[in-house]
Amino acid sequence: MKNTVSYRLISFGYLHNQPPEADLVFDVRRSLHDPAALGEDLAHRDGRDEQVQRVVMCSPTAEVVVHLATVYVDTMSFQDKSCVIAVGCSHGRHRSVALIERLAAELTRRGYPIDTRHLRLELLENRPTESGEQ
């Protein structure tokens, strides 16, 4: 029998998106260091960047969030249930993206089929330019 269980990980920004419908939502606005506050160099990058990820993962809460989400996925897998986990920060570019990337790496390492979405980054990457081109 084919395994149809899927695991979706979503990052978003509370200032730009409503929290997506999810089984588990983490609000990390107050619990993780904001790389954008450390200077322009990091402000113009996003959570897929290695430097941004290092800053985010230095927050004591970061690995706790990854651990809790991993335990949740492990529990759902025993029940043969799909799940959606969302992580939100203020703008949805740094902390939430870095955490989803870290969680995706951990779950992939454990053999789970993962689908990731970064809602704010998708909006930024798909917005038209001033000339109307994409």
TrEMBL record:
Residues 8-121 form the RapZ C-terminal domain. It comes from the Bacteria. InterPro entries: RapZ-like, RapZ_C. This is RNase adapter RapZ. It comes from Lentzea sokolovensis.
